[in-house]
């Protein structure tokens, strides 16, 4: 076979097997795919582990609720666990809905003798507040918790297990300490069922506590979020990550999966189990889109729109939540004697100002993925007036002192003022600047091609 040619259909090929750590989920099936075994396997795969399962119950459900449930015999659950652990090198496991005291007991026996960490998601209380287990099954959980590397109850489940009503960080710590006293190596008391704008998940270990705080997402599409969290932690533990690192990553990915949930079914929708993987896969295409916009600006010579501090083009991955997930020109685009040129190449995290503004705008319109800062002067102002664009503006002189004192808060404040001043999503946002801060026109768009077209339109109208 010549160099560079492809093998013919009649030739055999050398296999190239790939090794992946194995994780096991012991949980109920969700025919709607949003929770249970289906959600666990999707999440485990998204975290680059191989998912195996032992099904405890079969449910007929969708995004609007559960139609019926059929619980499998405990001996069938045991047979599944034994089949998997007898063949695969399982490196971590998680539990979900266990349905009956008998199944809880079988799983507890297997967990106690397991040579791998077990994450226990004590599925006891529905989102509605209804209890999903009888008292006997709830009591049986004590033995399983004693074998857990991590137990992940929500506030209601923590109350059932410990008798502690979780209403604050302090009471979450108290409940977590009770779970450690029951034998768990660690406890993550989730704050989704506790009121407030900020959501706090509290990790309690023998070495101390950590609180993971993030803004609450205003959506009802949270079905399966607990499954996804415990599955993400189990997958990372299977990969050899430390517990605290695994929990932090799990909390982050579930928060993102809720914000960017999937609009499926007639109910609220489903959490986006593959959101992290999809976001990572989009990094290079996003960076390439930024490069193409920059090249367009160089070829068109947009020097008339370059601010004194330089121009930057920023592209965010589809589910970006941080500056590190935005690609930009390192060192910005500057004017030269012959036009404009980028100082260096495109990399992630290269922009601060424009990136933070774009991320702030995405709080109002998550479809926005690209932005650029342009000059603002009388000529640009006149050009904007001639264009049929939705243009918003904010005045830094009106920025409250408490906002100015918080590092990085100006862009969030400015974006909010801008979006509240117009109907829908603006094409351009004018920052009128202040002493020591150059006035700017920031153009936003959903894709790089649209961004380039808008800037060139502004240049022609200039």
Secondary-structure map:
Layout: E1 22-30, H1 36-46, E2 50-62, E3 65-71, H2 74-87, E4 90-95, H3 101-112, E5 118-120, H4 135-145, E6 150-151, H5 155-162, H6 169-181, E7 187-189, E8 198-205, E9 208-215, H7 225-238, H8 243-259, H9 275-281, H10 283-300, E10 313-316, E11 326-329, E12 333-336, E13 339-342, E14 346-348, H11 353-362, E15 370-375, H12 378-386, E16 391-394, H13 401-405, H14 410-421, E17 428-431, E18 440-445, H15 448-461
Parallel strand pairs: 1-2, 1-4, 4-5, 5-6, 16-17
Antiparallel strand pairs: 2-3, 7-8, 8-9, 10-11, 10-15, 11-14, 12-13, 15-18, 17-18
Protein name: Bifunctional hydroxymethylpyrimidine kinase/phosphomethylpyrimidine kinase
Region (Disordered): 1-34
Keywords: ATP-binding, Kinase, Nucleotide-binding, Transferase
Question: Could you give a short description of this structure?
Answer:
By secondary structure, this protein is α/β, with parallel strands linked by helices. It has helices at residues 36-46, 74-87, 101-112, 135-145, 155-162, 169-181, 225-238, 243-259, 275-281, 283-300, 353-362, 378-386, 401-405, 410-421, 448-461, and strands spanning 22-30, 50-62, 65-71, 90-95, 118-120, 150-151, 187-189, 198-205, 208-215, 313-316, 326-329, 333-336, 339-342, 346-348, 370-375, 391-394, 428-431, 440-445.
